[in-house]
Amino acid sequence: MQLKMSRKIMKPDFQGEFTASILAAAASPDVISFAGGLPNPVSFPIEAMEKATAKVLAEQGAIALQYSSTQGYQPLRAWAAKRYETMGVYGVDADDIIITNGSQQALEMIGAAMLDPGDKMLVENPTYLVALQSFHLFDPEILPVTINPDGIDCDELEATIKANPEAKMIYVIPNFQNPTGLTYSRAVRERAAEILKASNLLVLEDNPYSELRFSGEAGSSFGAYLGDQCCMFGTFSKIVSPGMRIGWICCRNQELKAKLLNYKSTADLHTNIFCQMVLAQYLADNDLDAHIEKTKVLYKQKAETMMACMEKYLPEGVTFTPTEGGMFLWAELPEGITAVELYRAALEKGVAICPGDPFYETERDVRTFRVNYSNSTDEAIERGMKILGETCAELMQK
Amino acid sequence: MQLKMSRKIMKPDFQGEFTASILAAAASPDVISFAGGLPNPVSFPIEAMEKATAKVLAEQGAIALQYSSTQGYQPLRAWAAKRYETMGVYGVDADDIIITNGSQQALEMIGAAMLDPGDKMLVENPTYLVALQSFHLFDPEILPVTINPDGIDCDELEATIKANPEAKMIYVIPNFQNPTGLTYSRAVRERAAEILKASNLLVLEDNPYSELRFSGEAGSSFGAYLGDQCCMFGTFSKIVSPGMRIGWICCRNQELKAKLLNYKSTADLHTNIFCQMVLAQYLADNDLDAHIEKTKVLYKQKAETMMACMEKYLPEGVTFTPTEGGMFLWAELPEGITAVELYRAALEKGVAICPGDPFYETERDVRTFRVNYSNSTDEAIERGMKILGETCAELMQK
Question: Which among B358, B260, B102, B112 has a CA at the least distance from the CA of A112?
């Protein structure tokens, strides 16, 4: 047999290949890795989950193990809907929520529902590399808009929309963005919302990290400004468990919601109902905010340790953006050194970082890189940053 | 905002709309429904699952709740690989298995990996309606090949391949096919395998029901005849739990496997690892065959009850194909009455069937219909078939 696969699957996948090679190298037990993005297991409520699973199986086992609805378990959807009030979005109904296999599936579903080949869409520059990968499946023209320390560049946003009135949607991560850790200021949020409101763009707001704010003040979701023009993605991955693969789309546009449901019902029928029920039971019987607080205390300490080590060990000329939450820090090398060069040299000394390249649609050999602090010991952070600083200094002297 | 969705999502979905309307009508508590396809909860090992979840969380909680690999949990893959020996396929390795969100996701993944718009592929006629829906997402030209009581029509298969040498793949369900309940005879299996071996077709063998054989002798999987030309889909949905959404693809073609993994890693990263580990623990600690035996005893009795009632109550001229396993029976009305007419008339009297229409790529207003027996009480089967028989007789007199 001569296998002939689809054009879609045979397209080059820069993001996928780049990160696969980095994560493979970083996985060696001898390597101190800041390259990945794993939550710390402190964020997994294991004992409470044991109680929740036992209760669900004892009381509703035949429902938890049977086929279920595509939209997802109603009590879990009701929880997600209500949670939006903490982000300034009122009036969300359980019926607006579709449970997905992590918010990553939400990206793929929206891509399928919205994009034909050649369609234009906007993203922050840089942006979450898996979002780029996911959109690439549908072959759109991606228009990157610079993200500044206070959020998306509103002038550039306005100009890009004006020059591309036919663009279909924009993907943004306004809180502790991956990879930059940046958060939109209130002023940028409000101006961007005004610009977007006047546009024809469907706004996709991804929001995996906003619950992990350990200092400063939270801004409202774009859903509060834009109503049904904004689809909001959510996930339990960073606050309860990524392994359960439970996320959601909040879609208040009824026409789009119906199509997303059709698509998911064909793609995989429904998200595993057993985990949905266990999670809902866990949320009913426990104080999630108290649980998240423990994670935040730990992440704050980790972030502060890492920022202090970066101040201490990285040579002058290497800069980074402080953060108030999330899981990542974003740094920039001086002219003349690329992040890939630093990655290679540091890996030889046993430290892995994630070069910025795969987070950009077009730029390559960039000077930015991402480091993750959520899942490293203090000792690893100290030792790793010391080595990274020495490596930077060596490269700068060349 | 003016929402403009993708062409793909806006295409008419005959299968989806047809079955949604039927299942909505059949869901009324007053209706005796033979329209769906739910396993009987007797097939859910609830207590054993409680023990397995407690053990996994106590011993490996931090792994079960963390991110995991796209390919899936190794012990579960090893189990699925070994299980193929019972279907005559030897030498399958855990590394050949990709765990999916039910085998339904496997359909979507293969469609994405193989099909460009206009590509040709073969299916049995009729075939599983969700497979048609899933392939339709990729806009292929679908070439249906008649399925006879002893399996696919080999002459037609040969002619179709000859006339369409560029066709990319064929989707078959050789054991207790959905919707017909038919199984390929050994002779048909062998001849079809020869024809397929000489072709350029990737063979997709779906196999959700073969474990549910309650009489007769099982045939070998096409994977035994065709090696890496055959991708085999499997699922735990009919033997342990559909709610956990755990299925798999066995793909021994390394090039295709790599692309399927890339695709899944973008689409939803991985299938929920918690349920994968619980299932693997359940399989390690329990005798699955003894468990399946209980399900088979029940389904045999249900099938026999339904077949006896069909003999007793359906008027002469209405025929059906007996089955030796699975969950469905397939019947045919005499000329002059369509299955949709019967569906409508019977629903008015409180009985729901599934007309054959959505199982065909092109034929409409067909005379065939599917009835499910796995999840009805004996009383419901008796009463429902009596009503169905009366309704048939009335329509035949018109």
Answer: B112
A391/chain B closest Cα distance in angstroms? 30
Nearest residue to B173 (alpha-carbon basis) of B192, B152, B156, B146: B152
* DSSP-assigned beta bridge partners for residue A145: A124
3-class secondary structure, A372 = strand
Residue A262 in contact with partner chain B when CB distance is under 8 A: yes
A19–chain B nearest CA distance, Å: 12
Q: Which residues of A touch B114 (CB under 8 A)?
A: 4-6, 9
Pairwise CA distance, residues A35 & A105, whole Å: 23
Interval B72-99: pLDDT, tens? 999 999 999 999 999 999 999 999 999 9
Question: CA distances (Å), A166 to each of A135, A137, A257, B5, in order?
Answer: 17, 20, 22, 12
ipTM for the predicted complex comes to 0.97
- What is the pTM assigned to this prediction? 0.97
Contact A134 B266 (CB under 8 A): yes
Instruction: Give pLDDT tens digits for A103-113.
Output: 999 999 999 99
Judge whether B139 is closer than 8 Å to chain A, CB to CB: no
Tokens at residue B15, please?
A: 């299968």
Beta strand pairing call for A368-372 and A354-355: antiparallel
CB atoms A116 and B7 under 8 Å: yes
- Partners of B116 on chain A (C-beta within 8 Å) are 6-8
